[in-house]
Write a structure and sequence with these properties.
globular; nuclease activity; alpha+beta; 4-stranded antiparallel β-sheet; hydrolase activity; single chain
Length: about 220
């Protein structure tokens, strides 16, 4: 989830004014392992909280209602973990959504979990970097009417996927720019269910097991 900088629309008051004292709209996106945008939600005001944006999005609502045809969820006592989304500190911990353990004085196994989660999130960060590199409008404020903000951003996400699929001569990895026009959303501390902690603990245990550990992880924490 990122804040995309915009100009301050006329007569909009503080709707687009975010905590970093800039004007923005929020792009919440789900990406796959191949750097494609799979679900995009755009248009929330910069002033809105990250947790509220996710909870009120169609994706957040359908996940909470368990209306999506996802594989079986985690069952207490089972060693099999469910499929999950990977998020950062801006998201709440759910049975279907993993976020880092908060705090600094963490145990080794929790620090390893946070490293592995951060490593997976690089796919998301690189996808936004590719978008910024390809579409230079992302490197400055978008000057447009509010009704056009959504269409501009959605069009960029669609074209990003199209170029990756059909333009084999374009290397989106050749130049991954810094996210100059993006503002990260602040971290939140939301209460999680016991079942959600069970899921994160299952992944935590797997990441330090012989089957799930990677050789270099102890050197990265």
């Amino acid at each position: 989830m990122e804040n995309i900088l915009t100009s301050n629309p006329p007569n909009s008051g503080s709707l687009y004014f975010n905590y970093k004292k800039t004007f923005s709209v929020v792009l919440m996106a789900l990406v796959d392992a191949n750097y494609n945008f799979t679900i995009v939600n755009v248009g929330s005001y910069g002033k809105n909280s990250d947790g509220g944006i996710f909870a009120n999005s169609n994706l957040g609502k359908e996940l909470q209602r368990k209306n999506l045809s996802l594989p079986a969820s985690y069952r207490p006592g089972s060693s099999t973990a469910p499929y999950v989304l990977v998020g950062d500190e801006a998201f709440p911990l759910k049975t279907y959504l993993m976020r880092p353990y908060p705090g600094t004085n963490l145990s080794t196994d929790k620090r390893i979990f946070n490293y592995r989660l951060s490593r997976a999130r690089r796919v998301v960060e690189n996808t936004f970097g590719q978008l910024t590199s390809k579409f230079r409008i992302c490197n400055r404020r978008i000057h447009a009417l509010p009704k056009n903000f959504d269409n501009i951003i959605l069009s960029m996400c669609i074209l990003h996927n199209f170029i990756k699929k059909y333009d084999k001569e374009t290397n989106l990895f050749a130049e991954v720019a810094t996210l100059a026009a993006y503002d990260d959303l602040p971290a939140v501390g939301l209460n999680a269910s016991i079942e959600a902690f069970y899921v994160s603990d299952t992944f935590k245990s797997y990441f330090i097991s012989p089957a799930g550990a990677v050789p270099w992880q102890n050197n990265r924490i």
